[in-house]
Design goal:
By secondary structure, the chain is of the alpha/beta class. The radius of gyration is 22 Å and the shape is globular. It has two domains: 246 residues, Alpha/Beta hydrolase fold, catalytic domain (Rossmann fold, 3-Layer(aba) Sandwich), CATH 3.40.50.1820; 111 residues, no CATH class. The longest helix has 20 residues. Helix content is 28%, strand content 20%. The strands form three sheets. It has an eight-stranded mixed β-sheet, with helices on both faces. It has a five-stranded antiparallel β-sheet with strand order 12-11-9-10-15. It has nine helices and 15 strands.
């Protein structure tokens, strides 16, 4: 067990794609342990492997939740791949310390790449991994680290994929844009592995002009990188990879790239999608007055929820509690978990995406069951949630 297991995971492991968590040795003398999510097909393998590397949310890395890249993992397992998503040192429940080199983006990328290299070394020793067919991908800070790792000769690694790679530092005096260009020039001069880069036109962190500078610097220094600049994606393309709808953007170009570098792309398994709540005829989605239990404040929140992107979910409680979540992974589970943590009565989903899923009969049965169960101790926390934006997802908004 990791010391303390810093925070509870809201998202359940998905048995459909054999999701489980392992601890990967890393760092000096392999004293650190990286909390690593693994997905894989049924059977012993060996399977081709993709390692997907996460970005950095605002705030303390230790408070960042476990990344899964569930939608991408689902697509790769269906094609016979094993998937590893390591949380680097200091992030989530991984031990060790987060290594920060300030505005030196070159050093930041190299430092984070060390944990990816340790994950790769571990993977190559596993019997369920085909050590000759590996690809490494990364989003945001993970994309920068992936390209830094590509300066090494990595046996069995056929290609690198950079999704919106980079790192932003708005501290005083930090010329992070120029520092990023310099970092990619350095990585390009030492580049050993071909790469695919994907950036959206409405990326809030790395706009088209900066992306062009980074890519030009990388290629002019000798690096091999195919750049795909795709159309605006929802409100911010920086979170495209975490979105359920992102597959429409990244899948075709990624499969073509993998074919070029000798990685498999054929669909091998039909992996079932997670079950979804069924629409009911309780009310129309935009009928704010029909939502049960809500105060005037809650009704205003539901009105705001109706402006949010899909995937989205709204949960309510007989005590008047509510929560909505949008985008990212499993907004239904996130909305329910956060609502339940703030309420002394059970929460149920009212709407999902464009449909009302509320069933008053089921809700009444749940309330009766709860009335016969000892009430949990209320959390010591402010019950008025404050919206916060994380890279790739929106945190649940609660009352």
């Amino acid at each position: 067990m990791l010391p303390g297991l810093a925070h509870e995971q809201d998202l359940q492991l998905d048995y459909r794609i054999n999701e489980h968590i392992i601890l990967v040795p890393a760092g000096q003398d392999h004293q650190a342990r990286l909390e690593t999510t693994v997905f894989q097909p049924n059977g012993p393998g060996p399977f081709p492997l993709i390692i997907i590397n996460h970005g950095k949310d605002p705030g303390r890395p230790s408070l960042q939740p476990r990344d899964r890249f569930y939608h991408m993992a689902h697509a790769f397992v269906a094609r016979g791949y094993a998937v590893m998503v390591p949380m680097r040192q200091g992030f989530a429940n991984s031990t060790g310390s987060y290594h920060d080199h300030g505005c030196d983006m070159t050093a930041n990328g190299y430092a984070q790449a060390e944990d990816i290299k340790d994950t790769l070394d571990y993977a190559r020793d596993q019997k369920w991994v085909d050590a000759d067919h590996i690809v490494i991908a990364g989003q945001s800070y993970g994309g920068l680290a992936t390209m830094a790792l590509g300066t090494e000769d990595l046996q069995g690694v056929r290609g690198l994929i950079n999704f919106a790679g980079g790192l932003r530092d708005d501290s005083n005096g930090c010329g992070w844009r120029s520092s990023l260009v310099s970092a990619f020039a350095e990585y390009g001069s030492q580049n050993k592995i071909p790469s695919l880069w994907m950036y959206g036109q409405n990326d809030s962190l790395f706009g088209p002009e900066l992306v062009s500078r980074m890519h030009d610097a990388f290629e002019q220094a000798g690096g091999r990188a195919q750049l795909v600049e795709y159309a605006p994606f929802k409100r911010d393309s920086h979170g495209m990879l975490a979105s359920r709808d992102g597959q429409k953007v990244w899948l075709d170009d990624t499969m073509r790239f993998l074919q070029k570098v000798g990685m498999p792309t054929r669909m091998l398994y039909k992996v079932p999608e997670p079950p979804q709540p069924q629409p009911t005829n309780f009310a129309s989605i935009d009928d704010v007055g029909a939502v049960p239990f809500l105060s005037e404040n809650g009704k205003r929140a539901y009105q705001e929820y109706l402006t949010k992107m899909t995937p989205r979910a709204f949960a309510v409680s007989p005590s008047g509690g509510w929560c909505w979540a949008e985008e990212g992974e499993d907004p239904e589970a996130r909305a329910l978990a956060t609502c339940s943590a703030k309420s002394d009565k059970p929460c149920r989903l009212y709407s999902v995406d464009e449909h009302v899923v509320w069933n008053p009969d089921l809700a009444e049965k749940a309330a009766v069951t709860a009335s016969n169960t000892p009430a949990p101790q209320p959390p010591v926390a402010d019950t008025n949630g404050v919206p916060s934006q994380a890279l790739g997802s929106t945190a649940p908004v609660v009352n």
